[in-house]
TrEMBL record:
Protein name, per record: DUF4255 domain-containing protein
Organism listed in the record: Streptomyces crystallinus
Biased composition range(s): Basic and acidic residues: 211-224
Domain Pvc16 N-terminal: 4-181
Start and end residues of each stretch annotated as Disordered: 186-224
Length: 224
């Protein structure tokens, strides 16, 4: 799933205000060595944290239906994870970097919720929209200064991008076949003797019998 989120993110950053600009979108760790090797303007989206969003955790089972809308399997609800990206711009001057960050922000803000139709692979199969948060309140324990220190670089202006993505919970369980036969009613004598009658009731037969009784009652002279 993580690589599919990377694909979605590269598509978002490469479009919008940055479409046709020729600016590359990189997912590499922005270390000091990486910064020294680059030779063109780059927008970098570095995945630095993965945590479960426990507030979204659900219990129970979800039905999986076929093309006839019949439940064929059951599965556990997906587990949601927060993928945090550090989005930075790399050029020769701070002014150009700020312009790139502004373009990235303008591109990301309209996409607060990515619908299933715009998601790839297994993400689309879940049929769930993916929330995207840009520069929201930080809930992770690590500060940006600590992240840059771990990367061995100097602190740069950045966008904190969080993509909350569902991960399927396995395994899936096969569901029993749909009920096609009605209930069987067997009657016995009050003394526990042999069976006196046997009747099978299907849902449509029960409904027809009830409608017939109501019609008969309405035709009686003393009916209200």
């Amino acid at each position: 799933m993580i690589h599919e989120v990377d694909e979605v993110l590269k598509g978002l950053l490469g479009g919008g205000a940055l479409a046709g600009s020729g600016i590359d979108v990189s997912l590499d760790a922005p270390t000091r060595d990486w910064a020294a090797r680059r030779n063109a303007p780059v927008v970098n989206a570095y995945l630095y944290d993965i945590r479960e969003d426990t507030e979204r955790r659900q219990r129970g089972q979800l039905p999986v239906r076929d093309e006839r809308d019949i439940v064929v399997r059951r599965r556990r609800p997906p587990r949601w994870f927060r993928l945090s990206y550090l989005v930075t711009a790399w050029t020769k001057t701070p002014q150009d970097e700020h312009r790139l960050l502004s373009a990235a922000l303008a591109t990301l803000l309209p996409h607060e919720l990515v619908p299933p139709g715009e998601l790839p692979g297994a993400l689309a199969e879940l049929g769930l929209s993916v929330p995207v948060t840009v520069s929201g309140s930080r809930t992770e324990s690590r500060s940006l200064a600590e992240i840059w220190s771990a990367l061995g670089g100097e602190l740069k202006p950045s966008l904190d991008l969080v993509v909350t993505v569902p991960f399927p919970a396995f395994p899936e369980y096969e569901a029993g076949p749909p009920v096609t036969e009605g209930a069987m009613v067997r009657l016995r004598g009050t003394d526990g003797g042999p069976r006196s009658s046997e009747r099978s009731h299907r849902p449509h037969q029960v409904a027809a019998a009830r409608a017939a009784r109501e019609t008969t009652a309405a035709d009686r002279p003393d009916a209200p």
